[in-house]
Design goal:
heterotrimer; A mainly alpha (296); B alpha/beta (559); C mainly alpha (313); A: 296 residues; mainly alpha; MetI-like fold; elongated; B: 559 residues; alpha/beta; 6-stranded mixed sheet; 26% strand
């Protein structure tokens, strides 16, 4: 059978991590993306200082007001200040993004290394990963959250589980191609132990793609959190997250579209910046570009 | 002037359009006449291929730009021609065949249809006459069973057959010029010989001008009428074949010719019968099982019943074409793959069935150098770390191992400061030296060189071969040298094993095997070696009777 | 061919086994009494007992699993805990809108994305390439519900060209169906277009660097012929693959889109079931969509053989 080279597995990482022949965003766009991201991160960190109002304070008299001094973007259905809620909402969203990226990359790297190097483990692990990948991630996530109760931890777990198989496949494919390299065979010939070969010769090959994959996971986790909240299966609705703000705004969409519009814009800009920085990182780390630089 | 098909005058090709851009081709002038073969010869990076792509108008746009000079095809200027006009000239007036027949054909279209595309694009013939024309052409390139091949996909054909399809496609409209860019480099020698004679014959029949690009002086001697030697984008020297091979005027040409290893085996070293056996295999066999659908198992013997003996301080060559199993044997001996049956004794110890862990203490006795210098070193480790890794594995303190690495770098003629640098800072030949140092760091008794000089330019090749020879003399290491190149084998081996289809065909002292082979297959191999009539290093034809076996055979092996 | 088909189907069995196991364990491994989780905090002991019996929660774990699997293999996905209606029947009633939207999305996405990707690769590095790729990054970054609401705001509220929400069956006439399907399709195809255009471009770029493309150019074939006859057919395998793996994305997107546009499809059904903890419905939906995903990818595996003669069975 000659199908191995073009099996879906070889490309699945590409779906998330982008094409192999890359799109190079111009440096101006990258700079703008980086500035946007810094602004979003900083305003989330300093939300306590920057927010004009208490994001949780209910004020029935102030329901659905347009922008005014002290309430730049107006108020929501409970009279809470929209801007303050968006600023505070960034904290949870970014925490989930970064947390999901770190945890799923760590777990995926471990499983992927084992799967790529030990044939006996590979078949079993990959069947499990295929199974997990077959379950639409949003369905799995809302099921997990609804059954285990909505908390930051369960939302995080619900987002991480579907991401792990993608990381495993990426790591495994890198390891599988690297272990065919003559320098790995040379390491076997000079008597290097198996852990040493894994650690010194195989694992470093996975770092560049994993950093890139990590940024994409970060973006997609923020997106998934927003979708979960939007569907009503996310973190407790009183906690301001971008998804929750929009979910609450749904009922009043025709009266006051800015309840969905502003958090949507901030969310999109954050995800867009992270994706663009991911693309730029991928180009910077692409070994093929490095080779070109040294004039092979 | 009559008969000039291509005239290149003072051609300059630059990287980009900036005025200070570096020049890939500088002031190149060449001519090819009707019915003539001009060989463009040079090492990698000399600008041979860029020259041919310029003629075809296939340079990558805006990256490589002809900035000066002229290229005239049958009297017509090419550099200023429109894209549309260039397209109409391709295949009709000028055609090209490439190095890699494996990738040069579209894998998802039957080959007949791919030739048909040329006719559909450039002629108004109807389907039936196109098909007739194609089948005729396929017969002309001596393809068997043309009706079947017409409908075949490329992956069903061998490398030689694919190259014949490429030639048929190139010549079907009888162009005035055929550009052949290393068309036989990826092929085995016996196939190469057939393709070369095919190009020669077709050229004679059609009066085509051929621009033949190659790095191989042997091939030059076989096919050229005239030769142009290129280096760093300049034409160093142009002349008739005889003039270039006998009386080269430029130092570079002389060096290039001197570096070509001779097919005549070097003087035999005194056989020291008392030298101990360091490696021997008995009936070593490697069988691959392919499971097809519904569980039918097909067995492919990559190596079968290989028995060999290697003495201390000697060099044993294994020669053969691709698929002969020579590399499989090497990898089995190193236990990089596990043999199916048979024995491997290393310094008297049987290692063929040892587990990974039990094997580790024995690994240091035998080391390997690989073919591809760009992939055999870990790009993320410094040269020092790479060389020191082995000794550290066997308990040497890191500082001592690095000190040893420095000594070894000196031994392989690299500067000591190389130790803190990374592989990408070195050339291919230098990397191969690093790989040799890594192997020597283990103090091995046996060094396996698996096509270790095949990827190198001929001048670098000569240096690395010299280095291996010196090391062997100095350290008394036994060398197992695997190569497809009979010239290289003749220059480095004491004994030679010839393999075909996984089996040993013939073995014995290099002097006997390479001058008076007993087996038909070995005779074919020798006969197919390009340029076998020339002693390049001494600028003269070989005295007759040395290499050429008497009987000429019609070789129609597996192409 | 038949042997290959059989082997591929056999290979899908362990995958579906893992899916079933995950779905099964999801409820059982959750801390606390599953019956209490499903019934909520205000359930009476009788209600809890009824749920336990109906789900077989009083049996040992492995017995539960095999009884459950056995029923499912017979097409019995159980009864909704809320409405007491058979799950299969519920799904059957609400599948039409989902299928309509999903099919129109796939069609629209492929028709738009593939030409975009081909052009971007052909005009590699030019402004056309940049615009296409920027749109593609944007497609990955803007959530489908934001796109949905922006579309509603523009086309339904500002310009009043189209209805805000809802769904009409195509059997009731093409006009009303089309009017209401157009915005959800646009919203849902945005990310799918981004995905397919991106992979088409990447695959085309890789193929355009191949030797046989150079051969085709050396034959004097025009650019259109080179692109369509030589490059696109060779670039097709990764594109088809991504259409298959992107199917998971589509399912997730359907769930959200149906909520935004108030479409009574199975996505909406799933969300309602999750919010009501109607476990049999959730189980059935995950199993069925996963099964669909596996089937789609199986079909795509078979399609490879039509595209690439090198792939043998």
């Amino acid at each position: 059978m000659a199908i191995d080279t073009i099996e879906p597995s070889s490309i699945s990482a590409g779906a998330a991590s982008g094409p192999r022949v890359s799109f190079r965003p111009s440096s101006a766009i990258i700079t703008i993306a980086a500035i946007c991201l810094i602004v979003v991160v900083a305003s989330a960190i300093f939300a306590g200082v920057l927010a004009p109002q208490d994001p949780q304070k209910l004020a029935p008299a102030m329901r659905l007001k347009p922008g005014m001094p002290g309430f730049p973007l107006g108020t929501d259905a409970y009279g809470r200040d929209l801007l303050s809620r968006i600023l505070h909402g960034g904290r949870i969203s970014l925490m989930i993004g970064v947390g999901a990226a770190i945890v799923s990359v760590t777990i995926g790297l471990t499983i992927g290394l084992v799967s790529g190097f030990f044939r006996w483990a590979d078949a079993i692990i990959m069947r499990i990963m295929d199974g997990l990948m077959a379950i639409p991630s949003i369905l799995l996530a809302i099921a997990v959250v609804s059954l285990s109760g909505a908390s930051l931890k369960t939302v995080l777990i619900a987002i991480i589980i579907p991401e792990i198989p993608r990381v495993v496949r990426l790591v495994r494919s890198v390891v599988l191609s690297a272990r065919e390299e003559p320098y790995v065979e040379a390491a076997i010939a000079i008597g290097s132990s198996l852990p040493k070969i894994l650690w010194r010769h195989l694992m470093p090959n996975t770092f560049a793609p994993l950093i890139v994959q990590g940024t994409y996971i970060c973006a997609s986790a923020i997106l998934t959190e927003a979708i979960l909240s939007f569907l009503g299966a996310g973190i407790n609705p009183e906690t301001p997250t971008w998804g929750n703000i929009m979910a609450e705004g749904r009922a009043f969409f025709q009266i006051k579209p800015s309840l969905i519009f502003w958090p949507g814009v901030v969310l999109s800009i954050a995800i867009l910046s992270i994706n663009l920085i991911g693309d730029a990182t991928r180009d910077a780390l692409d070994p093929r570009m490095k080779q070109r630089g040294t004039g092979k | 002037m009559i008969g000039k098909v291509v005239e290149i005058n003072n051609l300059v090709v630059s990287v980009g359009t900036q005025p200070d851009a570096s020049k890939i081709l500088d002031n190149v002038s060449l001519q090819v006449s009707e019915g003539e073969t001009l060989c463009l010869v040079g090492e990698s990076g000399s600008g041979k291929s860029v020259t041919s792509l310029t003629i075809m108008g296939l340079l990558p746009k805006k990256i490589l730009v002809p900035t000066h000079g002229s290229v005239r095809l049958a009297g017509e200027e090419i550099l200023t021609a429109t894209d549309r006009h260039l397209r109409s000239l391709r295949a009709t007036t000028m055609a090209m065949i490439f190095q890699e027949p494996m990738t040069a054909l579209n894998p998802v279209v039957p080959v007949g249809k791919q030739i048909d595309e040329v006719l559909r694009t450039h002629t108004s013939l109807d389907a039936r006459s196109r098909r007739k024309r194609i089948l005729e052409m396929m017969e002309q390139v001596r393809l068997p069973d043309v009706e079947r091949i017409f409908a075949s996909y490329p992956h069903r054909l061998s490398g030689g057959q694919r190259q014949r399809i490429m030639i048929a496609m190139a010549l079907v409209l009888e162009p005035k010029l055929l550009i052949a860019d290393e068309p036989t480099t990826a092929l085995d020698v016996t196939t190469q010989k057939q393709i070369l004679s095919l190009i020669r014959d077709l050229q004679k029949d059609h009066g085509t001008a051929v621009l033949f690009i190659t790095h191989d002086m042997g091939v030059v001697a076989e096919i050229a009428d005239r030769v142009a030697v290129m280096r760093y984008g300049h034409v160093v020297e142009t002349g008739s074949l005889d003039a270039i091979l006998r009386t080269p005027t430029q130092d570079y040409t002389r060096n290039l010719l001197s570096a070509v290893p001779s097919l005549v085996p070097r003087a035999a070293r005194p056989a020291t019968a008392s030298a101990p056996v360091v490696l021997d295999t008995s009936e070593l066999t490697k069988v691959y099982r392919e499971r097809s659908m519904l569980g039918k198992v097909r067995e492919v013997a990559a190596a079968q019943d290989v028995t060999l003996t290697l003495h201390k301080g000697r060099t044993l060559g294994i020669v053969g074409e691709s698929g002969s199993g020579k590399s499989t044997v090497a990898r089995c001996i190193l236990r990089l793959i596990d043999p199916t049956s048979g024995g491997i004794r290393l310094i008297g110890r049987e290692i063929s069935f040892l587990s990974r862990n039990l094997l580790r203490p024995h690994r240091k006795h035998i080391q390997i150098i690989f073919q591809d210098p760009y992939r055999s070193l870990n790009p993320r480790l410094t040269v020092g770390e790479t060389i020191a890794e082995g000794p550290v594995n066997y308990g040497m303190p890191k500082a001592d191992a690095l000190k040893r690495a420095r000594e070894l770098l000196e031994l392989v003629d690299l500067p000591p400061d190389a130790i803190t640098r990374y592989p990408h800072q070195f050339s291919g030949g230098q990397r191969q030296r690093i790989a040799i140092a890594r192997a020597l760091a283990m103090d091995p008794d046996v060094l396996v060189a698996d096509e270790a000089v095949s990827a190198l330019d001929v001048s670098v090749q000569a240096q690395v071969l010299q280095l291996l020879d010196d090391i062997q003399t100095r350290l008394g290491i036994a060398l197992l040298f695997i190569t497809h190149d009979l010239r290289v084998a003749a220059q480095i081996c004491d004994d030679v094993i010839v393999m075909q289809h996984g089996r040993i065909v013939e073995q014995g002292p290099a002097g006997d095997i390479l001058t008076s082979p007993k087996q038909a297959y070995t005779q074919q191999l020798l006969e197919a070696a390009p340029g076998r009539g020339w002693d390049f290093a001494n600028f003269r034809p070989l005295a007759t009777g040395m290499a050429a076996p008497a009987k000429t055979r019609d070789i129609a092996l597996n192409s | 061919m038949l042997g290959y088909l059989i082997r591929r189907i056999l290979a899908a069995i362990p995958v579906m086994g893992v899916v079933a196991l995950v779905v099964f364990l999801l409820l059982r491994l959750t801390p606390g009494d599953p019956a209490a989780i499903i019934a909520g905090d205000l359930a009476t002991p009788e209600q809890l007992e009824r749920i336990r019996t109906s789900l077989g929660l009083n049996e040992p774990l492995h017995t539960q699993f095999f009884t459950w699997i056995w029923r499912i293999l017979q097409g019995d996905f159980g009864v909704s805990l809320i409405s007491q209606v058979s799950v299969i029947k519920m799904i059957g009633q609400r599948i039409e809108p989902t299928i309509s939207i999903a099919l129109s999305t796939i069609t629209v996405a492929i028709l738009i994305a593939v030409p975009l990707g081909v052009i971007a690769a052909w005009k590699h590095g030019t402004w056309i390439d940049r615009v296409v790729m920027s749109l593609s990054v944007l497609g990955f970054s803007v959530p489908v519900f934001v796109v949905g609401y922006v579309l509603i705001q523009i086309f339904a509220i500002e310009f009043r060209w189209l209805p805000v929400q809802g769904f009409r069956s195509i059997t009731g006439g093409f006009g009303p169906f089309f009017e209401r399907a157009i915005l959800p399709t646009m919203a849902l195809s945005f990310i799918y277009i981004a995905l397919i255009a991106r992979i088409t471009r990447a695959s085309m770029l890789e193929v355009l660097g191949e030797d046989y493309v150079r051969t085709a150019r050396a034959k004097g074939i025009g650019e259109a012929g080179v692109l369509m006859r030589h490059a696109l057919r060779n670039a097709a395998v990764p594109v088809i693959t991504v259409i298959g793996t992107g199917f998971a994305l589509l399912i997730s997107g359907v769930v959200v889109t149906e909520s935004v546009f108030n479409i009574p499809g199975i996505g909406r059904l799933t969300v309602d079931a999750v919010l009501a903890r109607d476990y049999p419905v959730i189980q059935a939906m995950i199993l069925l969509t996963s099964g669909l995903y596996v089937t789609v990818n199986l079909v795509i595996d078979l399609a490879y053989t039509l595209l690439d003669p090198r792939i043998r069975y």
